[in-house]
Amino acid sequence: MMKPLFVNYEQFGAVGDGVADDFGAIIACHEYANATGTPVKATDGATYYIDGKKRHAVIKTDVDFGRAKFIIDDTAVEDRRSPLFTVETDYTDFPVEISSLKKTDKKVDFPHEGRVMVSVSNKNRTIYIRKGLNKNSGVGQHELFIVDGEGNIETTLDWDYDTVTSATARRVDDEPITIRGGIFTTIANREPSFYNYYSRNISIKRANVTVCGLTHYVEGETDHGAPYSAFLNFGSTYNLTVRDVLLTPRYTYYTASQVPGQDVPMGSYDLGGGNSIKVSLIGVRQTEDIMDTRYWGLIGTNYCKEFYLDDCIMSRFDAHCGVTDAVIKNSSFGWMCLSLIGHGDCYIENTSVYGRAFIFLRDDYGCLWDGDITVKNCRWQPVSVDGDIFAVLADNPGDHDFGYTAKMPRRLDIDGLEIMDDGADEKFGVYVLPDYSPDPEENAKAPFPYVPTEKLRVRNVVCRSGREIAVCNTPELYPGLEVE
After folding, report:
1. DSSP structural state of residue 3
2. Structure confidence at residue 439 (pLDDT)
3. Residues forming beta bridges with residue 458, ordered by sequence position
4. Pairing of the two strands 116-127 and 166-171
5. Taking the complete model, does pTM exceed 0.85, yes or no?
6. Among 95, 118, 315, 332, which residue's Cβ finds the most Cβ atoms within 10 Å?
7. pLDDT given at position 425
8. Torsional sign, CA 289, 290, 294, 300
9. What residues pair up with 63 in beta bridges, in sequence order?
């Protein structure tokens, strides 16, 4: 008997009328596909209803959702943390011996076959100790990197590890998986507005995955609800590409912060994840206006390396607990602007940013960028021109221990930046570098002093208003700064 070219959900009992619960048939279809190595193809024109029961479908083969529709009902859910689809690997993590590790190391030595993704941690050191309304006690030092079959480290390392308390590796999948198409609609939850994140999503935990042509809508949001951790969610992945997708930002809901008496907006996302290497977002769009402040940012990430964005239009790009080596090209970011902390080289080209700064270095994590930033032929529309404006915005008076030495970009190179400050009052200044501390002398004596930029190169920066652009407002904050 010949192996079928593909299997569909109807073969396993799906109705596809948008009323009958089809998720059991969907799960069974993928179980068969995984066991036989067969692709799955949904039926164009069908509408599959997914109820709130705790169960999920495992994807290990190519999937073509096509023009089929999926209704995800989150109004009555048994387990909000349970994903709907998980893209999984057949490989498992195995322990490896690494006693210590330096950022300059180029090789490790432990038994393995092929390319592996290595996870190391030092539980004795705490990093990313957050400050502000969402303050927390940080996380244990950790990161991922890729090692080839000969033991060569292929990925930039962020930290030195005097001690490695845990180290595991997992084989990188050689065969790629593609998930194509599909029109998904989530009927939003009506839970109280607390930090009880929903993860009813597509969760990608495998290397070499491409998601393309997918659409996700959200319906039924009210004046309250629980936040979402992202409909397309990734973690422990390598070489993930998300291409030509349309996603929906979530309403912004508020809850009590860590500071008594003050509420804080909850991050709620449709795309995001962490602990991943080589993530490419190409042609990502959102359904709502990127300047509509009712909606939270489309994306949030943590602990990612080798991040690439091209031709994306969304309300913001935000690296929470760090990104290492980022390229951002031909994109537009809305009212929440371009928020970064991280390491390595960040290259931004032909990109438009709307917000309080062209680059906002997140103050809740110390405004850290341990590396260089290059800006080329970009545009910036300040959200307010009633006051001094700063192309790079940072605020760190040196009074908080973030678990690392907080640094501004070592070198900032700007070649081509148009500041669209039409109608600005000429009495206010335009500056490249920020006033990161209110008192230069106090910052120098602070318990955790911020390390300022060492080298600045600026060319072809102009204001539409005709205002002159200065390096900084408070030169005392930048002793020894080299300026071209």
Report:
1. P
2. 83
3. 414
4. antiparallel
5. yes
6. 315
7. 76
8. positive
9. 40, 179
Residue owning tokens 């073969």:
11
pLDDT at 443: 77
Task: Give phi and psi for 445, each to the nearest 5.
Answer: -100, 0
Q: Smallest Cα–Cα separation from 343: which of 391, 408, 403, 433?
A: 408
Do 304 and 325 touch, CB atoms closer than 8 A? no
Structure tokens at 468: 């002159």
Both tokens of 134, joined, read 């969402």
317-318 and 299-310 strand pairing? unpaired
d(CA 297, CA 333): 10
pLDDT score for 278:
98
Q: Any residues with CB less than 8 A from the CB of 234 and at least 6 apart, and which? A: 203, 204, 205, 240, 272, 273, 274, 276, 279
Radius of gyration for the chain, computed over Cα atoms and rounded to the nearest angstrom:
24
pLDDT tens digits, one per residue of 372-430: 999 999 999 998 767 889 999 999 999 999 999 999 999 999 999 999 988 777 788 99
Task: Return all residues near 373 (Cβ < 8 A) that are at least 6 apart.
Answer: 345, 346, 347, 348, 359, 409, 411, 412, 413
**Cβ atoms of residues 437 and 470 within 8 Å:** no
d(CA 233, CA 229): 7
Q: Which residues of the chain fall short of a pLDDT of 50?
A: none
In this predicted structure, what is the pLDDT of residue 6? 95
Give the rounded distance of the alpha carbon of 117 from its chain centre. Answer: 19
